[in-house]
Amino acid sequence: MMIGLEDAVADRWMSEAADSMGHLLLGWSPDQEGGLVVQGVGLMIEGKGMNLGVGEICTLLSDPPIDAEVVGFREGRTLLMPLGDLEGVRPGTRLIRKSRITSVFLSPEWLGRVLDPLGRPLDGSPLPEGTVEMPLRGRPINPLVRQRIDRPLDLSVRSINALATIGVGQKIGIFAGPGVGKSTLIGMMARKASVDVNVIALIGERGREVRDFLERDLGPEGLARTVLVVATGDQPPLLKTRATLLAAAIAEMFRDMGKQVLFVMDSLTRYAGALREIGLATGEPPSARGFTPSVFAQLPRLIERAGSVEGVGSITGLYTVLVEGEDAPSDPLSEALTAILDGHIHLSRLLAQEGIFPAFDPVESLSRVMADIVPEDRLSLAREWRRLYGVFRRSEDLIRIGAYVPGTDPLLDKAVRVHGAMTDFLRQSREDHVSIDQAFQDLSGSLEEPAGEET
Questions:
Q1: Contact present, 91 and 37 (Cβ < 8 Å)
Q2: Do 360 and 188 contact (CB within 8 A), yes or no?
Q3: How confident is the prediction along the chain (455 residues), in pLDDT tens digits per residue?
């Protein structure tokens, strides 16, 4: 009796296992290369018996099955990183190829949607099927077909529009420490910027912050013309990198359709951190502050995917960078990105503590193309404003303790008289939209000295 019961249970188990394996192998053919898991350490899986190339995807027939990407080779073994949890993976787990090419199918109907790193909807609604095939890692762009940056882009932020004017197709970094207002600022620009489409990649964010950004910073108005790709901080590093690449591919699709695209990435630092984890797991030696050499090779490849090419489409890139210790020069990643990007916007914790939003630092911020896209009279006005603001900042301690004697320096005297108006110029409500023309009018007005106070 017991033997019969055991046989029945065994038969049922074998039948269920066969059905499960049949489902997993649906669409599998003998020409698909496969292999077996032989070792797994940390985030890395080692397989044998496969003929796969870097970037290809295979499926681990574990329970539950998971996908993994080929990231390298070591002593005749294939190194893979999972696109999910390693639960259920053991030595001998079967591997089969899932895709030979690293391309994705996208759709322009994804506007207003929130996606995960694999292009699946996170907002609970069915996603229109992708119909446009795009390479996940982009195509190299001939530098001679890139268009010159010759016109400004209205980002709706007064201080940036007037003091660090951004051009269509420019790549610029937003450098700041944590809690200084980066997310609020990029949400403000995504809602009001003069573009057709926003593509936003939230990489390594806290889960709570994703909904905060959607409802508080971006809002229904901004979401309606945005595709949002999210990889939270608890996900594997490979998913963070794939989320970044997917968002870049979506931006390229809209650019090829002739759209003006604002590509926002928050944050580039966490993307670099994911690349570092992958590099260390594959055996790369750490170099600058623990970052592997491949990190500094991959960053320019991502950033160069933005820009304007022949035609009417463009991608303007905004990349947030977490500054270590509020001191960019001491951070090798920030230093490298400053050299790669077309400019940098610094957000000052001191200004944020003084209640100034956005906490735009006019002394440290710079747009490298501003001289090419702004008329000379406006450029001179911005330089004069920066000069007065910088003079006041350098002498602020002396002024506050009463050690400065008015009349000693005419330039500083003027800076003291207009400092209040200059500070007001930097302030802006997150709901306000200030055009470029209005921003320069406000800039000029902030330099007008109060009547009766000239010396």
A1: yes
A2: no
A3: 333 334 443 344 345 444 544 444 444 444 456 788 988 887 788 898 878 888 888 888 888 888 888 888 888 888 988 888 888 888 888 988 887 667 899 999 999 999 999 899 998 889 999 999 999 888 888 888 888 898 999 999 999 999 999 999 999 999 988 888 888 899 899 998 999 999 999 999 888 888 888 888 888 888 999 999 999 988 989 999 999 999 999 999 999 999 999 999 998 999 999 999 988 888 888 887 788 888 999 999 999 999 988 878 999 999 999 887 654 446 788 888 988 999 999 999 999 998 899 999 999 999 999 999 999 999 999 999 999 999 998 888 887 777 777 878 888 889 899 999 999 999 999 889 999 999 999 999 999 887 655 54
In this structure, what token pair is assigned to residue 69? 């990407």
- The span from the CA of 180 to the CA of 346, in Å, is 10
Residue type, 261: V
Task: Give the residue carrying structure tokens 């001179």.
Answer: 380
- Residue 70, number of CB atoms within 10 A of its CB: 19
Cα–Cα distances in Å, from 68 out to 78, 87, 89? 11, 13, 12
The structure tokens listed for 344 are: 């940098």
Can you read off the two tokens belonging to residue 323?
């500054």
What residue type is 450 in one-letter code?
P
Cis peptide upstream of residue 183 (ω within 30 degrees of 0)? no
- Which residue has tokens 């990198």? 241
DSSP structure string for 245-292: HHHHHHHHHHHHTT-EEEEEEE-HHHHHHHHHHHHHHTTPPP-GGG--
Backbone angles phi, psi at 27, to 5 degrees: 85, 0
Distance CA(390)–CA(384), nearest Å, equals 10
The burial of 288, by beta-carbon neighbours within 10 Å (0-12 exposed, 13-18 middle, 19 or more buried), is given as middle
pTM value is 0.85
